[in-house]
Write a structure and sequence with these properties.
- The protein has 17 helices and no strands.
- The chain has 453 residues and is an all-alpha fold.
- The longest helix has 35 residues.
């Protein structure tokens, strides 16, 4: 009927075919309101004929939750009745076995046509929650069934996950590469997918019994490695080296921003869940809720996405920092080449020769440093303004542009500080020269003025 949604779903969205569907295919991998189903595990079941009358349609994970909510509640009451009336468990199996078989058979049939990887992951989470629910009730009558469901869902999830991972293979960069220095469609889809997956396992970081966390994280790491290699190959397709670096900066920044947004959202959801429902509940209900939220609190201690999410964010930040450093060195080298070369070579000469403080560095004395400093003093303002314009023109994302510009200016100050230290360490002549040239506070003031404009 109209209550059910189509069980077919998205196949590979990292493929060439997906690249031609427009720039918003990442929405297929965004959880959005679908995540709410995990907060509805204990809510009353949907009444099918009412939903059908109202013309409502639901994603398959909602139908899965609804069917299993009815199943676990009915099984619980019938099991207790059988124990009370017949005083043995075997009667329950005889009476309820056909019902379980029908539900299990329908699920197996539907899974064969289910291609939505997030839907299957949501069902794995729901099945885990149902296990917890029955454990809190201390009713073991569905333990074997829920174990079988887990053994059916996990292989299907791995098959669908592998479809995504296998679509990112050497050579795919040629079909995904647009020649534009922008966030690539591959990056948008991967970021949405990774954020959704990490959000769904945030409170199962250490659960290897039912929810196979370690296996799941290994799969995500392999996917990230494939995405990283593909982005690197695409960056090498740009004729201009700096454009390739900017391409990587924009793409890593997008992944970082998406994961951080998901991290904040999940942390807020966990906090809201932890702070709600304590009011007038009975002590037993409060104890059950605390047990259910314990794993969530452990995940929140490492951030909303848990320890795995924190590690993914750090890995992305490290890659972003490395690419930003490459861009900064390239930009400073084009505007202050003399200064950078002098500092690097002078420091190497000082280290090789073991030059002590107060002694001149052969080939890099204050007299030889003076022309470099005079050149810097004559054009540093114009060069800083040019760098500012370059970053804003080359890095399309404003927040990312500010971070890159800040990194460039900070590195410039560090080079200039190292230059002055090299000069001053060579005795009175160097100290006198350092007093004559542009001072660091003046450069800092100008940088603040330009960057705030």
């Amino acid at each position: 009927g109209s209550v059910a949604s189509g069980v077919g779903g998205v196949m590979s969205l990292f493929s060439k075919a997906a690249a031609g569907r427009g720039g918003h295919t990442e929405r297929a991998f965004e959880l959005g309101e679908r995540l709410d189903v995990l907060c509805q595990v204990s809510q009353p079941s949907i009444i099918p004929h009412m939903a059908d009358f109202e013309g409502k349609r639901f994603p398959y994970e909602v139908i899965f939750r609804n069917v299993h909510k009815l199943l676990v509640d009915t099984a619980s009451s019938e099991f207790l009745f059988c124990l009370d009336f017949w005083e043995e468990e075997t009667v329950f199996g005889e009476l309820f076995g056909p019902v379980v078989a029908v539900v299990e058979g329908d699920l197996n049939e539907q899974l064969q046509n289910q291609h939505d990887v997030l839907c299957v992951l949501l069902m794995i989470r729901l099945n885990s929650e149902h296990r917890r629910l029955m454990a809190r009730r201390r009713i073991p009558c569905l333990d074997d069934y829920l174990d079988r469901i887990n053994l059916v869902l996990w292989p299907r999830f791995k098959v669908l996950f592998d479809v995504q991972a296998s679509s990112i293979r050497p050579g795919v960069e040629r079909s995904l590469f647009t020649g534009q220095v922008e966030v690539n469609a591959l990056t948008r889809r991967y970021a949405a997918f990774a954020a959704s997956c990490l959000a769904l396992v945030a409170d199962h970081d250490s659960d290897d019994s039912i929810f196979k966390a370690s296996s799941f994280y290994e799969m995500l790491e392999r996917l990230w490695a494939s995405v990283f290699d593909t982005l690197l190959r695409m960056s090498n397709m740009f004729k201009d080296r700096r454009q390739g670096i900017i391409f990587l900066i924009l793409n890593y920044n997008h992944i970082k921003a998406t994961l951080r947004a998901a991290d904040s959202s999940v942390a807020q959801r966990i906090s809201s869940a932890s702070g709600s429902g304590s009011g007038s509940k009975a002590p037993q209900q409060q104890q059950q809720q605390q047990q259910q939220q314990q794993a969530s609190a452990q995940g929140a201690a490492a951030g909303g996405l848990g320890t795995a999410g924190a590690a993914a964010i750090k890995e992305c930040e490290d890659q972003l920092a490395a690419c930003t450093s490459l861009y900064v060195e390239d930009q400073l080298g084009s505007h202050f080449k003399q200064l950078l070369e002098f500092v690097k070579k002078a420091e190497q000469a000082q280290k090789r020769g073991g030059v002590q403080e107060g002694q001149p560095i052969t080939g890099f004395t204050p007299a030889e440093a003076a022309p470099v400093l005079r050149d810097f003093g004559g054009r540093w303002k114009a060069s800083i303004e040019a760098m500012h314009r370059e970053v804003l023109g080359q890095v399309a994302e404003s927040a990312c542009a500010r971070e890159v510009l800040q990194a460039s200016m900070t590195q410039l100050l560090l080079y200039y500080t190292r230059m002055l230290e090299l000069v001053k360490r060579q005795g009175p002549e160097g100290t006198a020269l350092a007093r004559e040239v542009v001072n660091i506070p003046a450069i800092m003031y100008e940088i603040k003025r330009i960057t705030k404009a």
